[in-house]
Amino acid sequence: MKEISPDKLYQLFNRSKRNTENVIKAAPIGICITNPLGHFEMVNPAYCEFYGYRQEELLGQHFTHVVPEVNQAVLSALHAEFMQGNEDQELRQEWEVVLKNGERRTIIAEAARIEADDGEPRKVTFIIDITQRKQLEERLKQANERLDHLAHHDELTELLNRRAGLQRLDEEIKRCERYGTPFSIAIYDLDDFKAINDTYGHSAGDSVLQQITSLVSDVLRDTDLHIRLGGEEFLIIMPGVNAEEAYQGMERVRESVAQQTFTEHQLTMTLSSGIASYVEASGTRLLERADKAMYQAKQTGRNRIVIALSSM
Ligand SMILES: Nc1nc2c(ncn2[C@@H]2O[C@H](COP(=O)(O)OP(=O)(O)OP(=O)(O)O)[C@@H](O)[C@H]2O)c(=O)[nH]1
């Protein structure tokens, strides 16, 4: 085999070094090299361009110069630990960074540990800007939360909608069976509500519904669940509450509504309600009994609360 002269070897080494430097310079992603103390020894043009600094502004600086103050200590500690680790270790993490103009961005930093000519370790870090992806993810998350909210809530009153409410009713019945706790529901319906729409228009009717449901929610206990069954008919689930306590609670609701006026027309409103307490394991049956009791309340003059007999 032909021997390679030391001169030739030196040439080959230099060429390889130049090639590597040119590749790093031309790389479209930001690359930096930091020394064991965390100071920049090399920053490529893409790195400088991303942060908005000139090369000479970064070289010699501690790398936490581009990190928000709150993360600086953690990142310094990580850097020191990384420098002492195995040669083949790699690090991939998501970080928030600060550009020269103060703008915050999110990057993925991928780091590798190499050994320099002086025998000391260095950290090579490759950065990828994922700010747009993060913003998109955040928008998607918010849109999903909104969709989830819309799927479970009534748009006008923001109360739980019928489907979500009936699901909660079944869950609460199961819970009360398991723990043997009392449990009541109340269905209430506004009295002569049609006249509001007919006299003042549908949007005044909408405002009345919003204001009354908001008032009722305020009067209820935090543990009660307030649901719009449809139209001007609502369900209240009262976990841990017996018929007598439910009656007292609904009396408070009835009085509060009857004492208030609603919308700019100063409208007075009343409601009728039927209460049913848990006697058997069926949400449908419980709803039927509460509905019958409410019908009685309407039949016997409105603006009143009726408790369903267990035989109802
Ligand atoms: N503005 C408005 N009206 C609604 C909404 N949902 C249902 N309604 C109206 O509520 C009214 C209910 O009328 P009825 O079922 O006759 O009941 P009521 O007039 O309250 O009479 P009683 O219940 O017997 O006291 C109808 O006019 C519906 O159009 C809504 O979301 N907004």
Automatic annotation (TrEMBL):
PROSITE patterns cross-referenced by the UniProt entry: GGDEF, PAC, PAS
InterPro entries: Diguanylate_Cyclase, GGDEF_dom, Nucleotide_cyclase, PAS, PAS-assoc_C, PAS-like_dom_sf, PAS_4, Rev_trsase/Diguanyl_cyclase
PAS domain residues: 16-85
All copies of domain GGDEF, residue ranges: 181-310
Catalytic activity entry: 2 GTP = 3',3'-c-di-GMP + 2 diphosphate
One Pfam family hit: PAS_4
GO molecular function: diguanylate cyclase activity
Cofactor: Mg(2+)
UniProt enzyme class: transferase
UniProt-listed Enzyme Commission number(s): 2.7.7.65
Ranges of residues in domain PAC: 91-142
CDD domains: GGDEF (cd01949), PAS (cd00130)
The protein's name in its UniProt record: diguanylate cyclase
Species the sequence originates in: Vreelandella sedimenti
